[in-house]
Amino acid sequence: MARLSRLYAPRVPQLVQARLARPLAPADAPAPAEALDTIAGWLAEAARAPVSVHAWAVLPDRITLLVTPGDDQALPRLMQALGRRMGSGLLRARVYAGRYHNALLEPGRWVLPAMIWVESLAVATGQVSLATQWPWSSANEHTGLTPSGHDAASGMLRDHPDYWREGDTPFARQAAWRKRLTDGLPESQGRQIEAALLGQWALGEKIFLSHLGRLASRRVSPAPRGRPRKTT
After folding, report:
1. Can you tell me the mean pLDDT for 50-67?
2. Paired strand residues for 63
3. Is residue 146 part of a domain?
4. Would 8 be classed as within a structural domain?
5. What distance lies between CA 93 and its chain's CA centroid?
6. Is 126 left (phi over 0), alpha (psi -120 to 50) or beta?
7. N-to-C CA span, the chain
8. pLDDT category, 77, cuts 50, 70, 90?
9. DSSP of 44-67, one letter per residue?
10. What pLDDT does 157 receive?
11. Phi/psi of residue 163, nearest 5 degrees
């Protein structure tokens, strides 16, 4: 089966995940802090205009982002630039385990759940018990625990309008986000996000998918199973 072409539509947020060909550390080993710091810094350098980063997480086995690319080549350039830095300056071997996966998200409905999903990955994978305990994600910045400029990755974020609607002030937004991270996602939402990312489809209501289908670079949802119905 031919592999899917990249899914892109103008001004539509994308959830992106690239798994590493070789994890930075075994699953039961302590987090490789120096390597994760370095990758986060390289990510901040690569993630410049025209890519807006809304959430991010670097884990020993993957890099996960929520972004809005400015054009159809912005995201591939970012991932290629990061891969080159990692391949020459850290891993000195193949970096990614195949192509990265991406899914388009409906603003107003799926951006915030995807942000929670990204920033909670370290909890889901057993690295920590609280999202804010993992320094290599945007969780601390969104909750106000890491002042801008505190580490190499600070200043990378360009908050999505959906996050700004969480409160009228930075303190209100940070408090609202702390509660969201503590509450977590309903299991059904997590499964939908994972399925869209694995299948490299769009996630949203029917009206959004219908509109997106006229803008996107390819089909945005799986074709119905079975043969097409005959018409008379």
Report:
1. 96
2. 18, 58
3. yes
4. no
5. 24
6. left
7. 32
8. very high
9. HHH--TTEEEEEEEEETTEEEEEE
10. 93
11. -70, -40
Q: Give buried/exposed letters for 8-45 (b at 16+ CB in 10 A, else e).
A: bbeebbbbbbbbbeeebeeeeeebeeebbbbbbebbbe
Residue at 218 is within a domain: no
Q: Is the pLDDT of residue 163 over 60?
A: yes
Predicted local distance difference test score (pLDDT) of residue 229: 56
Instruction: Identify the band that residue 149 occupies on the pLDDT scale cut at 50, 70 and 90.
Output: very low
Q: Which residues contact 151 (CB under 8 A, 6 or more apart)?
A: 37, 40, 135
Q: How many domains does the chain have?
A: 1
CATH number of residue 130's parent domain: 3.30.70.1290
Can you tell me which residue has the tokens 């959830």?
15
Domain hosting 98: range is: 14-211
In a domain, 111, yes or no: yes
Q: What predicted TM-score, i.e. pTM, was given to this entire model?
A: 0.90
pLDDT tier for residue 3 given thresholds of 50, 70 and 90: low
